Amino acid sequence: MSRHLRWAAALLGVLLLAPVVGTPPVAGADNVSNGLSYTVVPDVRAGTSPQGPGEWTVNYERLAGGDPAVTDAINRILDDEANGQVWLFAASASKSSPWTFNTQGRLQFRPMTISELWQGQYNAVELPNMPVDTVATRVFDSRSGIQIVWSNLFVDEQAGLTRLGELTKQILPATYPTPPLGGWGEYYAGWAPIERNFRFWIPSDTGIQMYFPEGQFGREVRTITIPWEAVKDLIDPVFAPITS
């Protein structure tokens, strides 16, 4: 076992765009990144689907203030993500059962990153195995506004994905002692070193907070923390401050 592993223990409906009324922007001491203070501005995408008995509400947070170029770059991607979630769930939703999709995005600020975590639920009330919990993330470099993904965070993306897979295989069962139906061995494909298995994450003080959507490892969203020490040797020096 390596020393690194040891660290492990046409849209279906008319999209209605509406601002959040009566909710003031939020500014606080915690909304600081790269030495600049930002204001959190709530926004929403909400609508109904005439081709299916469904409705959706995507609440999320945008930025104001700070570095204008960074703010604009991040907000464009946050808007795209909010609209994309509508497309994803409206297009694949039931055409017979009444359904709802509701999610909430929250911004998180660290010294060199600004991230947003969306957590929600899709519910087609007349279908089995409902509701389904949902998750999505975006991570940005607050120095430039670019999105941080595995291909730029790691010097070698495949080496990084391989490390994430090895660590997930160890940390996930330790975090969830009760295995999903069929046992962890039934879900080995979920920690294979490919990008789609590790697409939802945010940086935290202690490491990479991974989120695995419902279905990847059983009937719930699962989350683990991969310690920075276990992956920092693979991180591009440009992004080394992400670990502090």
From TrEMBL:
<feature type="signal peptide">
    <location>
        <begin position="1"/>
        <end position="29"/>
    </location>
</feature>
<keyword id="KW-0732">Signal</keyword>
<protein>
    <recommendedName>
        <fullName>DUF3298 domain-containing protein</fullName>
    </recommendedName>
</protein>
